[in-house]
Amino acid sequence: MRPEISEFSYAYALVESIKRRLLPSFRAAPLFLSHFQEGKKGGGFDVALTYPSFLIFLQFKLSHYMVRKTAFEARQRLLPLPFYRMYLMPLKYSEQHNLLLDLESQYKLVFYAAPKFHLTTHLNDAYIKDEVIERSFFIRPKEIGPLPDDERHYVSFRDGSPVYLCSEPKIIREHEGKGSSFLEEISKFKKSEGKKPSREKYSKLSRGMLSILSKHERTKRRLTSREVEKLADREPLSVINHLAWSFFHCVVLGVE
To answer: pLDDT for 154-182, tens place per residue?
Structure first.
C-alpha cells in the first residue's frame, strides 16, 4: 500500500519531535530551502555567529506498507506480513545515495529516516503523543552500503525482525528495534565528540562537501565555478545548508 502521508508532513513532524526531545539544546538550521539566497559577503541565511556543537543530516523517505502474500519478501520467507519498504533513489536517476555515503565518510551523523506508519491518522496520533521518533526507522547510508547497480532497490523492515536490502536480499541489520535508539546514538555522540566547534571546523566541512560534489559527474556539472565563488564568501553554516538541501537532498539540524 502506497503511503497516504506526504514526505513534507512526515519531515515536519519528525523535526518537531527531535526538537522537543533535545530542548533546550536544539536549534534547527533553516529547512526546506529550494534556492540559494543572494546577499552581501557573509550573507545568505540569517545565521548566528555562535556555532552549534554538532550537526545531524537527515534524508527523509516514506514507507510503503506491504500486506500481500505476493510481496517478494513474503514469498522468500524473509519477513512476516505486514512490513514496510523504504525505496532508495536509483543511481540511474540520482547520485543521492552515493553522495550520502561520501558525506558520512566525513561526518558521522548522516541518516535516512522513514516512518513506521503510512496513514495520516497514524501520523497525527504519533505527533500528538510525541512518538514520531519511536515510530520511525533510522539507518545510516553505510549500513546499506554501495548499491550494486543502477536498478531499483529498497530497504525492508519490521520491528523485531532483520532489516534487508533488496531486490537481491541481503541482511544489513540483524534486528530492528525502536526508533528511540536514534536519540541514544545522538546522546552518545554529544558526550564523546559534541564539543563546541570553531568556525574553521564547519569551514572544513563545507569544503569537504564541495570536494565530494566535484567527484561526481552529475553534481559537478550542476555546481558552476561562479556558484562556488559565491559560496566562498558565505558563512560556513549557510554553505552547508545550501549544499545539503540542493545537492545532497537532505536537511541539516544543529544541536548546541
So the answer is: 999 999 999 999 989 999 999 998 887 89
The Cα–Cα gap between 235 and 162 comes to 42
146 SS3 class? coil
User: Is the Cβ–Cβ distance between 76 and 169 less than 8 Å?
Assistant: yes
Q: Which phi and psi (to 5°) does residue 206 adopt?
A: -65, -40
Q: For 42-89, write each residue's pLDDT tens digit.
A: 444 444 456 788 899 999 999 999 999 999 999 999 999 999 999 999
> CB 172: neighbour CB atoms within 10 A?
18
In a 13 Å sphere around the CA of 237, the CA atoms on its Cβ side amount to 24
C-alpha dist (Å) from residue 113 to 11, 50, 61, 125:
9, 28, 6, 18
Helix 225-232 vs helix 236-246: crossing angle, to nearest 10: 150
The runs of H, that is alpha helices, within the chain are 7-22, 72-75, 96-106, 120-128, 141-144, 180-193, 199-214, 217-222, 225-232, 236-246
CA pair distance 252, 186, nearest whole angstrom: 14
Q: Give me the DSSP letters along 23-85.
A: TTSEEPPP-S--SPPP-STT-SS---SSPPSEEEEEEE---EEE--TTSHHHHTTSSPSSEEE
C-alpha cell at 12: 515536519
